[in-house]
Amino acid sequence: MTVIVLSGPIGAGKSSLTSILSKYLGTQPFYESVDNNPVLPLFYKDPKKYAFLLQIFFLNTRFHSIKAALTDDNNVLDRSIYEDSLFFHMNADIGRATKEEVATYDELLDSMMKELEHMPKKHPDLLVHIDVSYETMIKRIQKRGREFEQLDYDPTLEDYYKRLLSYYEPWYENYDYSPKIKIDGDKLDFMASEKDRQEVLDTIIAKLKEMDKLPEDWTPSHN
Ligand SMILES: Nc1ncnc2c1ncn2[C@@H]1O[C@H](COP(=O)(O)OP(=O)(O)OP(=O)(O)O)[C@@H](O)[C@H]1O
Ligand SMILES: Nc1nc(=O)c2ncn([C@H]3C[C@H](O)[C@@H](CO)O3)c2[nH]1
């Protein structure tokens, strides 16, 4: 079968959809290190001090997941490595990383991506992007309730999140490592609505069939 990677801003629903999709496909989910990430709370407390360290932490953990996920043929990952660079460049643009840190990161990422060329697959088979507005993003961040991501923890996060959304739009348009589809995360409540969930799953399955990554007579797993 296939390697599918989710993308989208903070709180878009990537982990949630990764869980739903991997159960439906009967494949293995891979989640980003968040709750066991010791650098993330430090970053939100002092972004300028910890932006580079956080990026190295994510790059390292993401690289391990990708290597595991690309080795066998049957996985869903809850964020792409391509978005890490978006995050870091955005942070650098607002003065949270020096140009030396950016150059070092870019070179390291490039070397690590070259390592992936030796893997059975170099890139995912499909990118599933969840598109959300600022209002939806904030609602989901509040619902999930990680303290350091809340606007009352740091009011400057409003600008940070709006900027992040503005970087995602061109990023998705320019993404060309694999076929891609966009899910309307404002409209489709795949957590609460069975009908919306099925619509999202049907869209993904139809795309996989169109790409010959699933047989026409494929039926869902009931894991
Ligand atoms: N389509 C949806 N409709 C309603 N609620 C949703 C939807 N998707 C996710 N949620 C809720 O929003 C919150 C954030 O979702 P989730 O953790 O899956 O986002 P994420 O994109 O993985 O976030 P992050 O980038 O921070 O890892 C959770 O509380 C989840 O239950
Ligand atoms: N600075 C920075 N760089 C990244 O590559 C990156 N990837 C994820 N995150 C933050 C967003 C959510 O709070 C939380 C979960 O996605 O982690 C990142 N932050």
TrEMBL record:
Binding site for ATP: 8-16, 140-144, 188-190
Domain of life (superkingdom): Bacteria
SUPFAM superfamilies: P-loop containing nucleoside triphosphate hydrolases
InterPro entries found in the cross-reference section: DCK/DGK, Deoxyribonucleoside_kinase, DNK_dom, P-loop_NTPase
Keyword Nucleotide-binding: yes
Deoxynucleoside kinase domain span: 4-204
Residues engaged in binding substrate: E32, Y44, Q55, R79, D84, E149
Gene Ontology CC, one term: cytoplasm
Record-linked Pfam families: dNK
Kinase recorded as keyword: yes
Molecular function as annotated in GO: ATP binding; deoxynucleoside kinase activity
Active-site residues, as the UniProt record annotates them: D78
Similarity comment: family membership: Belongs to the DCK/DGK family.
The name this protein goes by in its record: Deoxynucleoside kinase
Species of the source: Lactobacillus mulieris
